[in-house]
Amino acid sequence: xxxxxxxxxxxxxxxxxxxLRGAEVVVRDGLIARVGPARPAEPGARVVDYGxxxxxxxxxxxxxxxxxxxxxxHASTRRAHAxxxxxxxxxxxxxxxxxxxxxGVTTLRDTGGYLTxxxxxxxxxxxxxxxxxxxxxxxxxxxxxxxxxxxxGLRADTRGEVVRAARRxxxxxxxxxxxxxxxxxxxxxxxxxxxxxxxxxxxxxxxxAHRLRRQVAAHVLGADGCCDAIDxxxxxxxxxxxxxxxxxxxxxxxxxxxxxxxxxSHQSVHMTLAAMNxxxxxxVDHLDALPADERERLRGVGANFRYMRAQGVPHVVSSDAGVxxxxxxxxxxxxxxxxxxxxxxxxxxxxxxxGAAAGAIxxxxxxxxxxxxxxxxxxxxxxxxxxxxxRVTRTAAVYLGGREVARKRRLGLAAAF
Length: 417
Hints:
The chain contains twelve helices and 17 strands. By secondary structure, it is α/β, with parallel strands linked by helices. Strands 1, 2, 3, 4, 5, 14, 15, 16 and 17 form a nine-stranded mixed sheet that branches. Strands 9-10-11-12-13 form a five-stranded parallel sheet. α2 crosses α3, α4 packs parallel to α5 (199-211) and α9 crosses α10.
């Protein structure tokens, strides 16, 4: 039996509860055995004391694109993806997931790549052939001919084609089903505010995916798409931006009646804090240093989400990593951004990328909180992240299943397996 005790001045358990001071986590055979105040160590016990650091669950990014490289503009991303071989796409995915792992992301949910390639990456991680975080993958997103992300290879136009596409991904081993229900910014001719399908088609997809015991994630930028996703019973509303006017930035029209229809027992809203919504925090040591105009802009970004949270709608913060200006090694900046955009506390922001995220994607009994019996997926950061959320960017160590896999943002390949 292998046992390890990790100690730190502060512990955030991922449930949203107040932080624990002078705490320890006891890890036994890869699982959390005990969480609580530090006790005198037994003779010969393996103890790592991180001093004035913070221990928290490993971060969970529920929305990323492993095969994209966060290039300077959307056109460059499209060209690079189209020109890449399948081998190159796989290697990009491996590189990106390892960048994320080194910053404390122990679970990644890939929301769309080329056909089933990322399933191969997932299996390589599971088998121990390559070091990486826990992966959930959908394969390719379902979209229309000429629709958003059509270059990922899974085009379906009619109701029957959409259902068959979902079955195809499920049969190949998809962990969940992704549909591009509205257009998106990355695809020329695709209107971000306009729906690509109708409500009966989406309902048919959700019904069949649930029959196959798969969640459905819907890309919804437009207000009509958000309403349809709610009414069709989609499990995770990705972006949920409530855009109008063909997707004009900054023009939103949230339907409060539709918000009231959200089924909190299984539906959640996934706020993607990407690019310009997290870049202002690069190099910022404390939120007091954020300019007032940036603070107000971010509060505007979060206004609809704050309203939905106040109505009891389950929320998750994710990144959309891989798209323009959103590299995989900066997810902690999305956590920092959430504190401002949602006008919340550091402890709550951590909850939105740990316990809340795990529950939303069906992993609540596996990871996401520091509780006995769960996987010992842990992030240690320098300083008190409960008082200063900017500390979450200062990775001291990352543990995956109780094994240290990164230290100071450097992967420890030999230590992993």
